[in-house]
């Protein structure tokens, strides 16, 4: 999975977690405040609900941005080599002679991508839900355009809806001079001027509160998280809070008397009993409840500090939860910025410079986040530990850098393997033998005996000397360690042909274009693990 899709999946899961927990915390806190007599007004409750919704939607991208800009955690508190591990690592299990294990396929079985399948299923279903909801909303616009208009002021139009429908309001993002805010009222209200006035005032208040704009957010959340009952309940609760806030605004603002407004609500409830459900993305006069009628006759003083304190308490819980959800969904994944910082921090003078690009990050995360990759690299570090200094003496004799140890890690997990071995290798191409995985032709070219009587590729000391000679020759030929590593896997003829036909010496560009395989990226990721073994902790 690419970095973009991994980030998208992380954000999706994080938002789902925060919406669920945030809604539960908010309802529990409101219940506790009510039990303690610290009631909030309807408009303050609506504000707290919207603030919680905004926190759940904005915290994941904010946390991702901060994590990308400021790499933290254990990346910068580490030892730069695995020497500290050598006292507790067991001896590697290799011998000079070939083992007689039965040959099997060296290809690891491909596991079914369950995560990708689930992501595709959820994405398809969410897309279908959102498309269906938005199409219903567009059909509603065409229907409103065809209804007779009672009045239009600016970009607000009051129209008559179908006789069996209840009053509702909606908003469409449209260019002038077309109306964008709509209020639909049933025809029977034309015979009741007082009821018509209060109904229109109620629906206009929805526009003032931006309920009709936020309805799009609820519509999308309902489609994206159709599988999450907590998100659905959050949306229904916000819709109820919007109605209560409208009622409170009209009565407390003196635009409607409580008794007249209660009669209007009761009449709307009686007529709405047989009405079809409201279209998606609209707000309307929901069925009144006992609480809604009683609220009209209760006086609740506005104390903004209570709502602010409630949202602050919810935020104090959601912020660390957002960081945890991101870490849990990302696992141990390393970002491009973190890998680049890691390469700079662990770079030693004279060693192979690691050029971190998207391919290197992908390989590094394969080592760090997947069970097979972690097991392979842990085995490689385990086998390397007791023999690291022996290898380094041979490399230093030719003035070669320490980072070349990662080649043995990637090729064989530092295991002395015959060609018939079933042990895995991360190197693409022809399979060789020994720690450095020489193929027969290259081994003979550098003085190793490979025949039916003897295979000196399994003589670790001799093979290491041959590998050092080969690395020295390749670097002298290309004067670039990444090209030298590419030639170690592809062969000089292949690399020379690529350089001649493309005129490009940038291995990253050649790999992206498909001229070279991902061997160099794999080795560079191995170098980062070699220098930073704590990534596997």
Describe this structure in words.
This is Transglycosylase SLT domain-containing protein. Residues 196-296 form the Peptidase M56 domain. InterPro entries: Beta-lactam_resp_regulator (IPR052173), Lysozyme-like_dom_sf (IPR023346), Peptidase_M56 (IPR008756), Transglycosylase_SLT_dom_1 (IPR008258). The chain crosses the membrane at residues 12-38. The chain has 20 helices and 5 strands. With 537 residues, the protein is mainly alpha-helical. A 5-stranded mixed β-sheet has the order 1-2-4-3-5. Strand 1 and strand 2 form a beta hairpin. Helix 1 runs antiparallel to helix 2 and helix 4 crosses helix 6 (229-252). The relative contact order is 0.12.
Features:
537 residues, five-stranded mixed β-sheet, mainly alpha, 20 helices, membrane
Beta percentage is under 5%
Helix share bin: 55-70%
Mean pLDDT: 83
Structural class: mainly alpha
* Uncertain spans: 70-111
> Looking at the chains present, what oligomeric state does this protein adopt?
single chain
**Order of strands in the sheet with most strands:** 1-2-4-3-5
Please give the largest β-sheet: 5 strands, mixed
What coarse outline follows from CA principal-axis ratios? elongated
Q: Say how many strands there are.
A: 5
> What is the helix tally?
20
* C-alpha end-to-end distance: 23 Å
Order of helices and strands: HHHEEEEHHHHEHHHHHHHHHHHHH
- CA radius of gyration: 34 Å
